[in-house]
Amino acid sequence: MNIFRLLGDLSHLASILILLHKIQTTRSCRGISFKTQALYVTVFVTRYLDIFTDWVSLYNFTMKIFFIASTCYILYLMKMKYRPTHDPSIDTFRVEYLLGPCALLALLFHYRFTVLEVLWSFSIFLESVAILPQLFMLQRTGEAETITTHYLAALGAYRALYIPNWIYRYFTESGQIDPIAVTAGLVQTALYLDFFYVYFTKVLQGQKFELPA
Amino acid sequence: STDSVGHDEL
After folding, report:
1. What is the dihedral of CA A68, A71, A76, A81, to 10 degrees?
2. Is the CB of A173 less than 8 angstroms away from the CB of B5?
3. H helices then E strands: how many in chain B?
4. What is the mean pLDDT of residues A27-45?
């Protein structure tokens, strides 16, 4: 555990709490992509299948349970409790364009050809693009509630912080590198660059998040 | 599972 990894995980935790807070206080899931949230559940479930077979630490175990449970709860809020506030007609990204290629990549790139390991690879590839339906929705509506942008910023920060974490681990753990996690992680972080630009130049200056028409 | 760096991350 290093400071980048810890801050990254805390940022990830914060992003989910911000999202829950947004839904509960506005009593609405307007502006949130159900598809992205459903992809995150898929990511967590396929990655954490080892939760009961490989013990890493209490920290690791607790976080995994929290990520699965909280994201399932968000799906419940969106599909049941605040269903009328969710507009599927703007959440139109075709997730099969993500699931198919990620499945193919996982079959091609994995550390062992076992069910668990191929699913682990799949989850890594899928996480890297799971935010696309959300970003696509943002692009379509051209604006976002400030709290939604804080959610995205925290999620992006989590990914960005994993990069110095890997560099740190490379130098402190005898040159170890994880090519699958690093490649997917770099792609994932790159997807946030446009968003970050608008977030830093507008939202943090007190303006509304609006994309140029 | 393997002991790749990513396996003990979240």
Report:
1. 140
2. yes
3. 0, 0
4. 97
